[in-house]
Write a structure and sequence with these properties.
By secondary structure, this protein is of the alpha+beta class. The protein is built from two helices and three strands. Strand 2 and strand 3 form a beta hairpin. The longest helix is centred in the C-terminal third of the chain and has 10 residues.
């Protein structure tokens, strides 16, 4: 079995936050081409191109454009929508003890 981390970078701010938070090293995010289709990713053109970085259990990493990562990203959006409200509702009217 292989373990893979998948990180979506939609903006330059996402890249900065990942580096500051220690999630990824600058050299892991320095790719300018998609590993799959050789399309531009990150800071490669005049504007920022969103991309995905995949990191395996051996800390090997590669960048993929959003189009190539589409099946993974679409599946997650369709079947695991983001939680917008906590399942744990705190009602101030309840007496706990």
């Amino acid at each position: 079995m292989r373990s893979l981390e998948v990180h979506l970078f939609e903006s330059e701010t996402d890249v900065d936050l990942a580096i500051q938070g220690g999630l990824a090293l600058p050299e892991q995010l320095a790719s300018t081409d998609c590993t799959e289709c050789d399309g531009p990713v990150g800071y490669s053109g005049l504007e920022f191109e969103p991309f995905v970085v995949v990191i395996d259990e051996n800390d090997q990493d590669w960048a993929i454009c959003v189009s190539c990562a589409g099946p993974i990203l679409s599946y997650v959006d369709a079947f695991f929508p983001p939680v917008t409200k906590s399942h744990y509702v705190i009602d101030e009217d309840l007496d706990y003890f």
